[in-house]
Amino acid sequence: MPRHLLLTLALAATPALFTTACVAAGPTATAAPVIQKADWPFTATEVARFDQPWAMAFLPDGSLLVTEKEGALQHFNVQTGKRAAITGLPKVAYGGQGGMGDVLPHPDFAKNGWLYVSYAEEGEGDTRGAAVARAKLVLAADGSGTLQDFKVIWRQTPKVTGKGHYGHRLAFGPDGKLWITSSERQKFDPAQDMSGNLGKIIRLNDDGSVPSDNPFASQGGVAAQAWSIGHRNALGIAFDARGKLWVHEMGPAGGDELNLIVRGKNYGYPIVSNGNHYDGREIPDHSTRPEFEAPKITWTPVISPAGFIIYNGSQFPQWKGSGFIGGLSSTSLVRVAFDGDNAKEAERFAMGERIREVEQGPDGAIWVLEDGSKARLLKLTPKG
């Protein structure tokens, strides 16, 4: 019997778990100060506009790459405002939450030119899944460019129906490994199913091969790719100065999370969550099942987190070591303060628009991308 079916049957056999009101486990985000525009400690300068942007990344020369959800990758000169499309991209499965996703230069990009992109791709029978590819970015003098030697190095398995919860955020760790957030595609059970890689945090070598020291490496197959399991819709990933990995994910109806990712741990979804199902059915809170790793922050009402950095620049020295999370439904930029392995929301900047992406610039400025059509690219610098 498939493991996902076993889980479904097990959950169905214990309905009391889903009907018991529980006190939320772990620190719930308290009411942090909401800072209105007049009191921002920064100036937000509009630099450009993009059509449904999803992610951005700076290249070593200070120029910017921006993905647009319908399937484009733009190369943008932040000094001159000139932009050019990058060619050689794959066809993407655009629709719902799917389309072009993240973009990430290799840590040694200046030497090897490797660029990583994630996107949603079509499968057979009306199915879809996220993919990650590696290619050489070759730029021309006029700023245009192309992706050469394009090769898919990872795919979500299995591909499933629906157009939500791809995840596919990318990061390189201090260990030189490629980390990928693989969401559960709104299918619940796959987050606990080791026969697939949905609902997992993935750790790979830079060529897509599986490191031998991954916690589930002995299981082989796609299970070997996983570093942690039991995740819902993970849309932000960042390492702190200690090399610790933090990931935020959207909860169901309530219960957005910020998690400290620990090797081999199970974060409990869909068995536990500090939110509930959209149809009103309750999900047991983390406090009811201590064998699962609890979030360090939960948000109810939700912030709908998107994009994530842990700041280490010099323009805002008072924020060094703070996390910044884009808020979609909360139309905000959320600052998180860390204390070792603990975290709390410190303050929330009311941006007035859905914030899709956050990035730190080479000079220490904070850059944010709004969501949707004609979305603004804003550069945040200290006021005065």
Task: Give the secondary structure arrangement, pairings included.
Layout: H1 3-12, E1 34-35, E2 42-50, E3 53-58, E4 64-68, E5 72-76, E6 83-87, E7 100-105, H2 109-112, E8 114-122, E9 128-139, E10 145-155, E11 167-172, E12 178-182, E13 200-204, E14 226-229, E15 233-239, E16 245-250, E17 256-261, E18 297-299, E19 305-310, E20 323-327, E21 332-339, E22 342-350, E23 355-360, E24 366-370, E25 375-382
Parallel strand pairs: 1-22, 6-10
Antiparallel strand pairs: 2-25, 3-4, 4-5, 5-6, 7-8, 8-9, 9-10, 11-12, 12-13, 13-14, 15-16, 16-17, 17-18, 19-20, 20-21, 21-22, 23-24, 24-25
Radius of gyration: 20 Å
Sheet of most strands: 8 strands, mixed
Please state the overall shape, judged from the principal axes of the Cα atoms.
globular
Order of strands, widest sheet: 3-4-5-6-10-9-8-7
Mean pLDDT: 93
Taken as a percent bin, the fraction of beta residues is 35-45%
Task: Report what the structure shows.
This protein is mainly beta and 384 residues long. Helix content is 4%, strand content 41%. It is built from two helices and 25 strands. Strands 3-4-5-6-10-9-8-7 form an eight-stranded mixed sheet, with no helix packed on it. A hairpin with a 6-residue loop joins strand 5 and strand 6. The chain is globular and about 55 Å long.
